Automatic annotation (TrEMBL):
The keyword DNA-binding does not apply. It comes from Brumimicrobium aurantiacum. It holds the Pfam family Acetyltransf_7. GO terms for molecular function: acyltransferase activity, transferring groups other than amino-acyl groups. PROSITE patterns: GNAT (PS51186). This is N-acetyltransferase. Transmembrane segments: none annotated.
Amino acid sequence: MNQTDENHIIAILTQTFHDNKSTNFVIKQDKKKTKRFRTLIKYSIFYGEHFGEVFLSNDKTACYITLDSTKKKTTLKSIFWDLRLIFQCVGLSNVSKVLKREALIKANHPKDGFMHLWYIGVLPSEQGKGKGSLMMKSIIEKSKMANKKVCLETSVERNFGFYTSLGFKEENTIQQLGYALKMYALP
């Protein structure tokens, strides 16, 4: 991925997730919040490129990052990125709460292979034009071809109906984080 495409993805996801409860739970909340969020997205792009897929629409207004649970593994590079995330984004004082969050999410994921929809975003000026639906249909088709479930989590109420309209079923709601994080799956 070139730097221009990465910058587009960062811009899309920054605008889409800026006030998201789930991402704000992970990011240390201080005057460097925007810079920390950029680090989180760069981290996510790294993981998507190595263990899943990073997609940017041709018009550069929509994107997604997925992870394939069967491809994800620990490497020296992934350890480097994990440490970078801790020191540049999460902060040492927040590591335990973020690890708790990740353990709760992982406990709700299937034990066999699945596609994890980590991020999907459309620039606010382009929302409501069907771009998110098109990307979701592409993700669903790819998961069917790979014979894998699609799993995701969201804390954004307006997304609940969107996912259920695509056939996703609510599997669980995690309440222990101070906000409701709904877990969805599409068989």
